[in-house]
Design goal:
alpha+beta, Factor Xa Inhibitor, three-stranded antiparallel sheet
């Protein structure tokens, strides 16, 4: 009997899928020590970044059918 792969809910909350199928991640560094960060840098951190190729296989496996 084959077991199902369960979706990891924390991974579903942290990643989004684009219309073209790319996985996007939130950028780090927006939680604290904001005074010394330049406004341009803070604005850039608000935009999502594309998931690294090395993590793609692992994250898609954790997602299961989470973002379909």
């Amino acid at each position: 009997m084959k077991t199902k792969i369960k979706t990891r809910k924390t991974v579903v909350k942290r990643f989004t899928k684009t219309g073209t199928g790319k996985l996007m991640r939130g950028k780090t560094g927006l939680n604290h020590l904001m005074r010394k960060k330049d406004p341009n840098r803070k604005r850039n951190l608000l935009n999502d970044g594309e998931l690294y190729k090395g993590d793609l296989k692992r994250i898609t496996r954790m997602l299961g059918k989470g973002l379909d």
